[in-house]
Specification:
Glutaredoxin
Length: 245
C-alpha cells in the first residue's frame, strides 16, 4: 500500500477561542523550523464553543465568561490580562476586553466555503483573517457585513459569500466536524489530529509540535534497515565494477 507523501494536520478550533490563535502561532513556529514544511497540509475543522450564543451578539465577552465560571468581572479581567500577556509573547496583540460574545456558525460555514473553493491555502488565510479580526481588531464576526468584508478581502468570491450567508449552506458540514471531534473524544479546542493517528490537545509549546511533526514524517517515509552488513561486503553481490568471485 502506497503511503501519502504529505503529513496532514486537521485542526478543530473556534474563531473566538484565544488558545486556538496562540496554538496557531506555536504550530507555525514549529513549521518554520521543519525541513519538510512544504509537504505539510493543514485543514481547519469546525468547533463551536458556545452554539447557544446569539447570532448577532452585542454583550462583551468578559461578563459572559465571568458568569459562566462563577467569577467576578474583575477576576475575569485579571485572568484575561494574563492571556493577553502570554499572547504577546507569540506576537499577538489581543484586545480581549473589547471582544463581543457572538455565535460563530456563520464564520465556520465560510471557512468550509473557502476550503471547497480555494483549498487549504485559502482556508488558512481566511482563518487567520477571522482570528485577527476578532482578537486583534475586536470586530463582531457574528455580523454578516463584517464576515463578508473579511472573506472578500481574503479572496473569496463576493457573490458566493453573500449566497452562503443568506442560506444555511455548509451547516451540515459544520455539524459533521463537531460530531467528529466528539468521536475523537475532544471536549475542548484547539485539538489537532496528525495523519489520523496522533491527537494533540491544547496550545502546546512549539517543541511539542516539532516532535510530532518529525515522528509523523518518519512514519510516512520509512527508511530501510540493513541486515547482514554492508551491501556487497563478502555477501555474493554484484556492483558497478562487476561481480567478485
Amino acid at each position: 500500500m502506497r503511503r501519502s507523501t504529505t503529513v496532514k494536520i486537521e485542526i478543530w478550533s473556534d474563531v473566538v477561542c484565544p488558545w486556538c490563535y496562540v496554538g496557531k502561532r506555536r504550530l507555525e513556529t514549529a513549521l518554520a523550523g521543519f525541513e519538510h514544511a512544504d509537504d505539510v497540509e493543514i485543514v481547519y475543522r469546525s468547533f463551536e464553543l458556545d452554539p447557544t450564543a446569539p447570532r448577532h451578539g452585542h454583550e462583551l465577552s468578559t461578563g459572559v465568561i465571568a458568569r459562566k465560571y462563577g467569577r467576578s468581572e474583575d477576576e475575569m479581567r485579571q485572568m484575561q490580562q494574563q492571556l493577553v500577556d502570554l499572547a504577546a509573547q507569540e506576537g499577538l496583540a489581543f484586545r480581549l476586553f473589547d471582544t463581543v460574545h457572538t455565535n460563530t456558525v456563520d464564520a465556520h460555514r465560510l471557512l468550509h466555503l473557502a476550503l471547497e473553493s480555494g483549498g487549504p491555502a485559502l482556508q488558512r488565510e481566511l482563518k487567520e483573517a477571522l482570528l485577527s479580526a476578532y482578537f486583534e481588531q475586536a470586530r463582531n464576526i457574528g455580523d454578516h457585513d463584517v464576515l463578508a468584508e473579511v472573506a472578500v478581502a481574503t479572496g473569496l468570491d463576493r457573490d458566493r459569500v453573500a449566497e452562503v450567508l443568506a442560506s444555511d449552506e455548509y451547516a451540515a458540514a459544520v455539524a459533521a466536524d463537531v460530531a467528529q471531534a466528539r468521536a475523537y473524544g475532544a471536549t475542548g479546542v484547539p485539538f489537532y489530529v496528525v495523519d489520523q493517528k496522533y491527537g494533540v490537545s491544547g496550545a502546546q509549546p512549539a517543541a511539542t509540535f516539532s516532535q510530532v511533526l518529525e515522528q509523523a514524517w518518519a512514519e510516512a517515509h520509512p527508511v530501510l534497515q540493513s541486515v547482514g552488513g554492508d551491501a556487497g561486503s563478502e555477501a555474493g553481490a554484484c556492483g558497478p565494477d562487476g561481480c567478485p568471485i
